[in-house]
Design goal:
The protein is an alpha/beta fold. It is 44% helix and 18% strand. It has a single domain (2-267), classed as Alpha/Beta hydrolase fold, catalytic domain (Rossmann fold), CATH 3.40.50. It contains 11 helices and 8 strands. Strands 1-2-4-3-5-6-7-8 form an 8-stranded mixed sheet, sandwiched between helices. β7, α9 (221-233) and β8 form a beta-alpha-beta unit. α1 packs across α2 (95-106), α3 (127-144) packs antiparallel against α7 (180-193) and α4 (146-157) packs across α6. The radius of gyration is 17 Å and the shape is globular.
């Protein structure tokens, strides 16, 4: 991977393909969840920008405590400037979906379209339960250590994940254990402090594809609830459910996710 120093952090990144730029913002714990998309044939006609957020994997560690969503969004924006990208399609998964939304609010001229893969939003009736479950994970991390809590966190979002994860992304679990600090001490505190609701959603005017795992509703009602609220509140939304997958859909079924992205970008191309 290459490195760029932006906003006081050194971010590791890689690019593949050529054409309209697409920035990929990963969620908590697993920094390489978008790597399977880089080899998908349907996306080779796009310039994919895959990077590790600050504190993760090959990017510089964060030593200044919790980092807010505004800083995370600024990191992505600065990386795009470093690469000479003025406007891009933005994809965010889970916590990265929250970062993508903040970027759309802070730099609307930079974000041409949004794709949100089950963004980590505390909305509706499920919001308080979700917040409490994340707080429990933070406390368990401090009490029982990274390895146990990383497994619990991933298992709750992708039941039986380990064999498939090891096959598609060898070493990803061990890296997630090493990155547990950025996830539980930095990301989640930043998420607790963030506010996003109907008022903010109505300011996100870019075409937005909200993607739901077809089996995610069996894990928690929050996935369906957040999807429904986004489709109700966003000015220009499209909804998609990918059959047979859960929260880590881009690792579980990269081809289906890649084809959905390519189709969306063909319908909303950047201006020439």
């Amino acid at each position: 991977m290459q490195h760029a120093t932006v906003e006081g952090a050194t971010l590791a990144y890689e690019t593949s393909g050529s054409g309209e730029p697409v920035a990929l913002i990963h969620g908590a714990l697993i920094a390489d969840t978008f790597r399977p998309l880089l080899a998908e044939p349907s996306l080779t006609r796009f310039r994919l920008i895959n990077y590790h957020r600050r504190g993760y994997a090959h990017s510089s560690q964060n030593n200044s405590g919790p980092v807010g969503l505004t800083t995370q969004a600024a990191d992505c924006w600065a990386l795009l400037r470093h690469l000479g990208v003025e406007r891009a399609h933005i994809v965010g998964h889970s916590y990265g979906g929250a970062v993508a939304l903040q970027l759309a609010l802070d730099a609307p001229d930079v974000v041409h379209s949004l794709t949100l893969l089950e963004p980590a939003l505390m909305l509706g009736a499920s919001a308080e339960f979700y917040r409490q479950s994340l707080a429990v994970s933070v406390q368990r991390y401090r009490e029982v250590g990274a390895s146990v809590v990383v497994h619990e966190f991933l298992q709750a979002r992708w039941p039986g994940y380990r064999g498939a994860l090891d096959s598609v992304l060898p070493g990803a679990f061990a890296q997630a254990v090493r990155d547990a600090g950025p996830a539980f001490d930095v990301d989640l505190q930043g998420l607790f402090d963030w506010r996003f609701g109907e008022q903010e959603a109505r300011r996100v005017t870019q075409p937005t594809l909200a993607v739901l795992g077809g089996d995610s509703n069996t894990l928690s009602p929050r996935f369906d609830e957040v999807q429904a609220l986004l489709l109700r509140w966003l000015p220009c939304p499209e909804g998609l459910a990918v059959p047979g997958v859960t929260h880590f859909m881009q690792v579980e079924e990269p081809r289906r996710v890649a084809e959905a992205l390519a189709d969306f970008y063909e319908r909303y191309p950047l201006p020439t």
